[in-house]
Amino acid sequence: MSIQITSAFDGGNIRVLSITGDTAELEIAHDHQSDFYQWFYFRVAGGDAATLRITNAGGSAYPDGWPGYKVRASTDRETWRQVETTYANGVLEWRWPGGAPLVWFAYFAPYPVERHNQLIADYAARPGFAHRELGTSLDGRSIDYLTTGTGAKQVWLYARQHPGESMAEWWMEGALEMLADTGNATTAALLGTCTFHIVPNMNPDGSYRGHLRTNAAGVNLNREWHTPSAERSPEVLVVRNAMDETGVDVAMDVHGDEAIPANFLAGFEGIPSWTDALGDKFYRFADALAAATPDFQTEKGYPKSAPGEANLSMSTNQLAERFGAISMTLEMPFKDHDANPDPEAGWSGERSKKLAQACLETLAGLIDTF
């Protein structure tokens, strides 16, 4: 019996071109109404050994992300492990030895919309947390928002503007776990100093549809923060409106990066109202986080914008300019954090959760100076 392949489920993405013997020729589907594609997630049934070949990998949004990358595989959808993977002549290829009746392959450990729904249900019912639906996406899904804490400092944490960056919502799960642990002295101090505003998934439509980077209309939400609209980007519009209600002192936009094998932060250099005093607070946070965990570093990252040239359509720049916030983008890898690698799992959902806790511990040590 030959293998069978499907991606007809929450977050799934693959197109089967052919199955010949034990070799499947595949391609990743584009985000709807967009040229972006890179996220994949599919199931193989049959139990046989197979060679899987994604033939359009070379035309993906970030082909520089494939060299050194390893596909994630799971036979139970809970534990995800790396599979030896090659990339040559625009084709991403790996071999599965078989032996399990079902196996799932993904670009990174998925964080399905259903898991998000359970996360929201759990925390909406927890003492000390409050839930509000800020609005709905273009497909009618809820933009869920949680708050906790009673302090004057307004801290916003938001993730998955780019839905294929599933490590971002694993990070959010870790942050929520720590903020719920009121027996932890660090958590208790943070909740007394700060009010946390948390949007675990900014793009539920793209998450469900199996998109890499865009919403249901093919719009990159992290290029909408200057002029969001109900027609193109209601997800950004309702979140930015809520930020206008509360103000923003500290903000972290959580993402994943395809090419750089490291965790790093991007700041708001180049905004019109840049001051060295505000920038120094961001740099102190980055340095303190690097000192706190081997899963973060400051050497690798994105180039800084020149003075006056920041892109204000991106949330980190917009919030720093709009509110004078200590605003930052956290990037985590699809590959591994090479400074502290895990050969079996690579960068993972569990490690993303632990990094969230390190970020909050670092914030606790600096918040009085912010």
Automatic annotation (TrEMBL):
Residues annotated as catalytic: 331
GO molecular function: metallocarboxypeptidase activity; zinc ion binding
Annotated GO biological process: proteolysis
Pfam families linked: Pepdidase_M14_N (PF18027), Peptidase_M14 (PF00246)
Record-annotated Peptidase M14 domain positions: 109-370
Coiled-coil residues: none
Top-level taxon: Bacteria
Similarity section: Belongs to the peptidase M14 family.
PANTHER family per record: CYTOSOLIC CARBOXYPEPTIDASE (PTHR12756), CYTOSOLIC CARBOXYPEPTIDASE 1 (PTHR12756:SF11)
Protein name: Murein tripeptide amidase MpaA
Source taxonomy: Bacteria, Pseudomonadati, Pseudomonadota, Alphaproteobacteria, Sphingomonadales
